[in-house]
Write the structure tokens for this entry.
Amino acid sequence: MTAGWTTRKPTALLVLADGTIIEGDGIGAVGETTGEVCFNTALTGYQEILTDPSYAKQIVTFTFPHIGNVGANDEDTEDLVPANAHGAVGAIFRAEVSAPSNYRSSGHLDAWLKKRGIIALSGIDTRALTAHIRENGMPNAVIAHNPDGVFDIEALKAKARAWSGLEGLDLAKDVATHQSVVWDEKPWAWNAGYATESEPRYTVVALDYGTKRNILRLMTGRGARVVLMPPTSTADEVMAHHPDGIFLSNGPGDPAATGVYAVPTIQKLIETGVPMFGICLGHQMLALALGGKTSKMHQGHHGANHPVKDFTTGKVEIVSMNHGFAVESGTLPADVEETHISLFDQSNCGLKMKDAPVFSVQHHPEASPGPQDSHYLFDRFFELIDSRKNTAA
Ligand SMILES: NC(=O)CC[C@H](N)C(=O)O
């Protein structure tokens, strides 16, 4: 593969486990780290992408060439505790990051990347890198930034080769809350489009595997008091909050590894009859809890322009995606219905139990970034909650 565009001495390198070396101009944090490289096709929302905790131990190469030109702000972060800087460990850009130009900007992307500890390279032929990933899958890699331009290439190659990769990794425990907390942040006005209830009418327990902030906002905006709980919480601990609904969040790593402790809890919670909704990692773990299987994808789905079909309505929605593992639909048991598929590769994107108020989707209905076509899934969750409440009343 060709190296980067830069004619200057490289100050940053991306070293793939297969020995490919890609040179660029370093920006953001100085140092080196390992991760899996994936490409993201979103045109906007780079801060939301890089702060999505589901990207832990991943390096994102953006196919959109101009990243950083609207600067950075303190609002467009998707992790709950920015000080802990959960999210992508590295970022790769085609063009040099220009001076910020946007009324919301409070600084240059470079400073923000430094603050978050994200190592980045610009001046990269991101088309070639994306083509490489499409052909060969998402590689393990080291990303290294040294303003002096001094690198021990053999050591970096060895480090990239030695990294285990994402398969078998439980990262949820690293990025999720360690304590139960009530999350009462309301939706942004521009993102609501929905009544923002002042008095909560429901209690939703959100099992946190690395949740995105906008998911919680879209639930508080529909009248929920959201109790965020650690990923290792037991079913009894969840039920002690008398939830009207249970939410399983998105998150990083391999669902099968996270599922070791989460799946038995989810199985017990299904039996309570409380409506349950899962997103992304939550969807994958629900599938595992129901007896299905997950597997690693070749290049994954990362972007804000993926077509997904909802079989329950026949409608196609354009969605936000970020996953590298997928549910194998053929492994779902007979009491589970496949509700959504990706129109890119027909992979599973949703399921529901035929006889229980339990459903989940692989894509990101909260967007952030991305289109809001799938916001209706939050309405479906609260409709299930209402109908159970009305039956009980
Ligand atoms: N966004 C997510 O929840 C990602 C789920 C899982 N870590 C995957 O890569 O498939």
About this structure: The first helix runs from residue 46 to 50. The longest strand covers residues 293-310. The chain has two domains: 12-162, 172-392. Residues 54, 250-253, 255, 280-281, 322-325 surround glutamine (CB under 6 Å).
